Amino acid sequence: MRPFELTAPTTLDDALATPGTFLAGGTTLVDLMKLNVLTPQHVLDINDVPLRGIDTADGLRFGALERMSDIAAHPGVYPAISRALLLSASQQIRNMASIGGNLLQRTRCSYFRDVATPCNKRVPGSGCPALDGANRMHAILGTSDSCAATHASDVAVALVALDAELRLAGPDGTRTVKLTDFYRLPGDTPGVENDLRTGELITEVVVPKLDWAANSTYVKVRDRQSYEFALCSAAVALDVRDGVVADARIAAGGVGTVPWRLPAVEDALRGKPATQEFFEEAVSVAADGARPLSENAFKVPLLKRTLVRALLELTEESTR
């Protein structure tokens, strides 16, 4: 880790007025600084800035500095969000990591984290070894000839499925961005991962009220049962009435370069019986446009099976 200057602003105005790299839980930033992937000269510890609070009165609102474990345990948090948080990392990391930092975490692609290898995210134009190298964990959706790194966040998948928005503050004022619009596909500029502008900070995460979001879940398929990133995951909220799907919200993780919303699957489910037969028919379009690499074509059927598993889990729960 290279030397850096550390300051600790106590107000949002002070934090936004000081150039530097924001530090919350540090569970991503510190790791990348140790690896010399990131080498900020000035780090701003913002943990004393008043960006906390959890409100479930009308939808959900989380201050950006709320810890993952506290949100997961809070009454009234939709199950898909709570389960996505609880299936993330380890308890110790969840106690440290902030919700805002989790949504901004960098990819866990081994090439990105190894400064001895090329990586277009880290050094634009240097190449993407994953395209022809070890790529079992990489994305099949939203990839480009420049990058196939998978988005790492679990809870971002649940939040995308539930139409979450971010409140952002920066030198030019405040604005609101839908999370689905916040993340960017790699294209020719994989180093530009989101719509966060210079000096901006996430201040709040807002999830619109959805009466049937209580019937939601997050299913994560991984190589081991704890402290592992997803090979594939599914965040699903389902509104079933008289045995028929009235509405659905669905997103997938572990397969996309961004949290992958699946509106075509949602459309295919609406108005259909909530049975395994129709679930399998609806998810048949989930991997449309996929570009598997040499070692991850298994993610195409895995995505469909993970979605069916999540849908069946919700249907079984709703009929108990």
Automatic annotation (TrEMBL):
Q: Could you tell me which InterPro entries the record lists for this protein?
A: CO_DH_flav_C, CO_DH_flav_C_dom_sf, Diverse_Substr_Oxidored, FAD-bd_PCMH, FAD-bd_PCMH-like_sf, FAD-bd_PCMH_sub1, FAD-bd_PCMH_sub2, Mopterin_DH_FAD-bd
Q: Which residues form the FAD-binding PCMH-type domain?
A: 1-212
* Alphabetized UniProt keyword annotations: Oxidoreductase
Q: Name one Pfam family in it.
A: FAD_binding_5
Q: Which domain of life is it from?
A: Bacteria
Q: Which SMART domains match?
A: CO_deh_flav_C (SM01092)
Q: What is this protein called?
A: Xanthine dehydrogenase family protein subunit M
Q: Which species does this protein come from?
A: Amycolatopsis heterodermiae
